[in-house]
Backbone:
């Protein structure tokens, strides 16, 4: 019996009647149906707003990051169930790895980044605060807060798991309930993922809904607090972007569209260089991974004219070794396209590209398949074309065959290569393969103007390179122009995309209360208990200590120089120092830092377990022999990361604002010190 897929709307699974048949990419048999029942998108939006948002707002950034980690762990333990279904999309095991474990890995990455970089609240201070008046009573800063809306994520067919999770992770951290809409052709894999997520019980109610089939009037029901992201074709992106309701309500719309990405073999590389083989290998891999169904795949191969034959020979040799067929058969290295529709579309695009160009490998009738019953599958042969007049051939820069298809084009000089690269009218990624740093320094800024990411490959980077076509959670994914003009991923910046930025003005005391982070000039609390003697729960933002004073002597400078080995003339040469802007010998900056620590540290064992870093260190005013310094230590920020020590006691991170001043109350040094602080037993 063929299973009918269901949507998950309003906290329940909906859909029983079969509608559109979905076929296996391997043999074209019907494996699933979409459901015929229309979705009540008013219910979906209401559920997200009234149930999802309050449930997410009960958690803070740190707690949501912990939920992401728990979910990633849960899914990783059950990944084989997803691999088994992914096989039906025509994907090989390595292809599925990118989708399945790549998606789960993105959850892990955002859980880690969130725990390191986000506060234990729902207000992210985007400082530093700045004084707006001469007397210190009026300051301003920026904060980022949850938008109070829902996120609609519309995804393409090629990555039914990664495509959803890479959008879900940052929007979940930003407290936005998500409505995911996968492309129908492979939506059965996304449905399996959502069922698994629901079974985990790890997400708050209303955090994630699923649409199988059309989005209907969903976009017409969104408001200015909501957001829409889209991955797919540039044509579809343009249609969705023009939705009257999205325009009228200024709903943020982010598109990541297919693009004609390129790989450039720089003129300094010869067939005898390791970079030459790296280039050929990279291109072949990008042509055949996921059967070329990647928005980041290499579509244009840009090579020096004098090396065109050598590149063509090497590529043909590698492509000839690619075994195509059922991925479950040992030795198969490339599977099928996602559907018969996709197969027909690629064939039509290849026919367009072939006009006036040469087919060097592949084409009609070139396919030899491995496996039983694959004759009716959605397979397409790896196809390599050659364009000898790329500057005057618009098709190779406009027509994309979304499959295992690439066009090689020749150039004379690096400027012509870069001109060809830019003819793609905006791409997600370009690769430059070179052994010459000077060429990279010249070419990359030019290529970066029309590409969202530039991948520079040489023998040194090849040992760790993740490749041309691999978006990483830490780096921006997206590109200008044809590529959609949007941004995804890029570390915590992706979370910021789903938050609302606001400027805040007020007194330092008010800004401290609003941001949850001490702002200099704000009210502090001093007590007989040293701040380092307080456990994490007992510390409050603004707890402060003003230390006793210390006068700096010549012996301090001499002794510090002897310990550190720093005999810089400004500290030891009286005559040379007189000729400087300071006019005299001054103390080492790091001596001032060390002396300040001596002033504010409480030496006995206590809740403060470790100092693991300094932020924002600045030396403002020089300290001379005879100057007297003191320090003010203030609890600036607390982040409960729910860590435990060997005894099982909880821990949190405390950032302390440190101001070191001299006898004239002038600021001489300024920094944040980060400490690990234990909780009460």
Residues:
């Amino acid at each position: 019996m063929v299973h009918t897929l269901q949507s998950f709307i309003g906290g329940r699974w909906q859909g029983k009647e079969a509608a559109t048949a979905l076929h296996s990419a391997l043999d074209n048999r019907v494996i699933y149906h979409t459901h015929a029942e229309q979705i009540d998108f008013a219910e979906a939006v209401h559920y997200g707003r009234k149930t999802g948002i309050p449930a997410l707002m009960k958690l803070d950034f740190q707690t949501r990051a912990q939920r992401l980690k728990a979910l990633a762990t849960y899914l990783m333990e059950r990944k084989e169930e997803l691999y088994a279904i992914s096989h039906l999309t025509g994907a090989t095991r390595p292809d599925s790895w990118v989708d399945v474990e790549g998606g789960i890995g993105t959850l892990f990455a955002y859980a880690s980044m969130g725990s390191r970089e986000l506060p234990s609240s729902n207000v992210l201070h985007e400082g530093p605060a700045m004084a707006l008046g001469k007397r210190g009573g009026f300051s301003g800063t920026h904060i980022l807060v949850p938008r109070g809306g829902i996120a609609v994520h519309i995804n393409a067919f090629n990555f039914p798991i990664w495509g959803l999770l890479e959008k879900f992770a940052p929007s979940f951290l930003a407290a936005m309930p998500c409505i995911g809409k996968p492309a129908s052709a492979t939506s059965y894999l996304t449905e399996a993922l959502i069922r698994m997520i629901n079974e985990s019980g790890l997400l708050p109610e209303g955090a994630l809904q699923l649409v199988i089939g059309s989005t209907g009037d969903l976009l017409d029901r969104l408001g200015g607090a909501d957001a829409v992201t889209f991955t797919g074709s540039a044509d579809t992106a343009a249609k969705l972007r023009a939705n009257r309701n999205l325009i009228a309500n200024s709903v943020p719309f982010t598109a990541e569209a297919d693009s004609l990405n390129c790989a450039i073999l720089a003129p300094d590389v010869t067939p005898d260089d390791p970079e030459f083989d790296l280039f050929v290998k990279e291109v072949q891999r990008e042509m055949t991974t996921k059967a070329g169904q990647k928005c980041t795949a290499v579509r244009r191969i840009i090579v020096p004219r004098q090396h065109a034959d050598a590149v063509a020979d090497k590529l043909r040799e590698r492509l000839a070794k690619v075994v195509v067929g059922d991925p479950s058969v040992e030795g198969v290295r490339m599977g099928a396209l996602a559907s018969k529709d996709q197969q027909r579309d690629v064939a039509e695009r290849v026919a367009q590209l072939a006009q006036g160009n040469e087919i060097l490998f592949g084409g009609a009738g070139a396919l030899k398949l491995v496996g039983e019953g694959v004759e009716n599958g959605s397979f397409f042969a790896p196809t390599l074309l050659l364009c000898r007049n790329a500057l005057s051939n618009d098709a190779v820069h406009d027509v994309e065959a979304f499959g295992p298809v690439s066009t090689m084009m020749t150039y004379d000089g690096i400027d012509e290569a870069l001109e060809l690269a830019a003819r793609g009218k905006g791409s997600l990624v370009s690769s430059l393969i070179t052994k010459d740093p000077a060429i990279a320094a010249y070419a990359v800024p030019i290529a970066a103007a029309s590409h969202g990411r530039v991948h520079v490959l040489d023998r040194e980077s090849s040992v760790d390179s993740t490749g041309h076509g691999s978006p990483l959670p830490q780096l921006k994914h997206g590109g200008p122009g044809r590529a959609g003009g949007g941004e995804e991923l890029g570390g915590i910046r992706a979370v910021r995309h789903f938050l609302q930025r606001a400027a805040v003005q007020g007194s330092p005391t008010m800004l401290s209360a609003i941001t949850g982070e001490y702002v200099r000039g704000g009210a502090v609390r001093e007590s007989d208990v040293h701040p380092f003697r307080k456990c994490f729960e007992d510390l409050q933002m603004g707890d402060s200590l003003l230390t006793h004073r210390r006068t700096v002597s010549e012996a301090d400078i001499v002794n510090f120089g002897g310990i550190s080995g720093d005999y810089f003339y400004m500290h030891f040469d009286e005559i040379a120092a007189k000729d400087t802007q300071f006019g005299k010998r001054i103390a080492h900056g790091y001596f001032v830092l060390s002396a300040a620590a001596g002033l504010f540290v409480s030496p006995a064992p206590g809740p403060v377990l470790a100092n693991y870093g300094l932020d924002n260190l600045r030396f403002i005013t020089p300290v001379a022999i005879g100057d007297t310094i003191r320090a003010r230590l203030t609890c600036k920020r607390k982040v409960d990361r729910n860590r435990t020590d060997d005894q099982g006691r909880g821990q949190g991170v405390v950032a302390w604002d440190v101001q070191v001043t001299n006898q004239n109350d002038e600021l001489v040094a300024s920094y944040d010190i980060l400490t690990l602080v234990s909780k009460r037993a």
